[in-house]
Write a structure and sequence with these properties.
Chain lengths: 229, 246
């Protein structure tokens, strides 16, 4: 054990490093949600038909809903492995504020599941016929929105820790809370395509991100303490 | 601490509250029954037929109180949840669990009556109007709360987890409401407006007000009965419950 004391930034980095290292040893955990994202988005044209005008109109919504589901798929593992091997209890007991550790874990969840979605989205967007300007706004909206998804999802993951049927329950708890992000995220692309400009939507996404960065780690920390009682 | 405060905290104990709730609920139930009888009588026989909507409008006498209560109960639930987290009182969590099914029921009732009203008036069972959508999401929030509580075996943990969820939900409700409203205006023009201030005949207004109060009384009575059952269930190992049931 090292006696070196870490500053808050050091703790943040240490948690990030650990999460990334763990994910790199289990690459499937990062890749599966990404593949899921691609598969779900590809199912829509098959269900709806290949009409390009219709697909173009639906693209932002379809891609955002797929991203929402993909981000949620990996949420359950956010705390589950740490819970089973006992390291979560050490985090709760440590002198570092739990909400900071939680924020670091949410950030790592974004880096490992949100960011790949942001990078993959333009490829899928091309399949739906979005032009480069819309693709840029789609990426920007996902970049602002997916961290919020990770932060809000962390609350749900903490509440359902070690609970019967946690997977389905998690989606029932978090999906209604994701609705504002979905509306402004998909709305940003549509508003820009309609000539209204995406600034308003993107600002609101950023506002949601700021709000959830402040409140969600606190709520998650409380929920974790309750789950570990 | 003043004597008054002690007096109030006395009822934070489930044992004391059990007795109080037992004395109170019959009064609230009687009030609910009486007011509902008067309210329904006014809404069916006294209130005049609407000039545009005919007889079909009469469903609002149930619809409006139901939707109001569904929203209000969520706030009350979150209030009890917050109180339970702050003071670690067992009764607060029980009150939140006792209110949730009634809230979900009213949200559901409001959606059903809305659909029944919408079909003849708008020609559609469902439109993606901002209010309808928010009410639907509120129902989802209630269902999430109920599902979370029912899947946790330890009642204290279920109470606290539910409390966190209710507080997160109550912060989100206004955000969801406004985002849905904005989404609605972006996607479709105001094809259907619910917000036109209706000039209501005063008997209609009275009928509605009486029904609102009746729904309040009903909610309080049902919550008290339900909290009594929850108390009995959770305190079943104690001496006083054995005596109370004899």
């Amino acid at each position: 054990m090292s006696t070196r004391t870490l500053g808050l930034g050091g703790v943040l980095l240490a948690v990030l490093r650990r999460e990334v290292a763990l994910a790199m040893r289990q690459k499937g955990e990062v890749l599966t949600p990404l593949v899921f994202f691609v598969v779900i988005a590809s199912l829509f044209p098959l269900g709806i038909g290949p009409e390009s005008a219709l697909l173009l109109r639906m693209a932002p919504g379809v891609l955002w809903v797929s991203a929402l589901l993909a981000a949620m798929l990996s949420l359950q593992r956010l705390f589950a492995t740490d819970y089973t091997d006992g390291s979560l209890e050490q985090m709760v007991l440590s002198s570092t504020p739990l909400s900071l550790l939680v924020a670091a874990k949410a950030l790592s969840h974004f880096l490992l599941s949100g960011l790949p979605l942001v990078l993959m989205a333009p490829v899928l967007g091309l399949q739906f016929g979005l032009d480069s300007r819309s693709l840029g706004i789609l990426m920007l909206s996902l970049l602002l929105g997916t961290p919020t998804l990770s932060l809000i999802g962390a609350i749900g993951a903490a509440l359902t820790l070690g609970v019967r049927g946690a997977g389905v329950l998690l989606s029932l708890l978090t999906l209604p809370l994701y609705i504002p992000v979905l509306i402004f995220g998909a709305g940003a692309v549509e508003a820009d395509a309609a000539g209204l400009g995406a600034n308003g939507h993107l600002s609101l996404l950023a506002a949601l991100l700021v709000l959830s960065t402040f409140f969600a780690p606190l709520a998650t920390a409380t929920a974790l303490r309750i789950s570990l009682e | 601490m003043t004597t008054r405060a002690i007096h109030w905290f006395k009822f934070a104990s489930p044992q004391n509250f059990y007795g109080l709730a037992g004395r109170l609920w019959t009064w609230f139930a009687a009030l609910a029954a009486a007011l509902m009888a008067v309210g329904l009588w006014i809404s069916f026989f006294v209130a005049p037929t609407d000039a545009q909507q005919g007889q079909g409008y009469r469903i609002i006498f149930v619809h409006v109180p139901a939707s109001q209560m569904s929203m209000f109960i969520y706030v009350v639930m979150a209030f009890w949840a917050g109180l339970g987290l702050a003071f670690n009182t067992r009764l607060s969590g029980m009150m939140a669990s006792a209110l949730a099914p009634t809230g979900a029921l009213f949200a559901f009732l409001s959606l059903i009556t809305g659909a029944l009203w919408g079909k003849p008036m708008w020609g559609a069972w469902w439109v993606w109007d901002a209010r309808l959508t928010s009410e639907l999401i509120l129902l989802f929030l209630y269902l999430g709360f109920l599902a979370l509580q029912s899947s946790i075996d330890d009642p204290r943990r279920a109470d606290k987890a539910g409390a966190v969820l209710a507080l997160v939900g109550v912060v989100n409700v206004p955000i969801i409401y406004f985002s849905v409203q904005w989404w609605n205006t972006l996607h479709q023009g105001a094809s259907v407006s619910l917000t036109r201030a209706p000039s209501m005949a005063s008997t209609m207004l009275w009928g509605m007000l009486i029904m609102v109060v009746a729904f309040w009384m009903y909610t309080i009575a049902v919550a008290l009965v339900r909290v009594r059952s929850i108390i009995l269930e959770r305190e079943r190992h104690t001496e006083w419950v054995k005596h109370a049931l004899e």
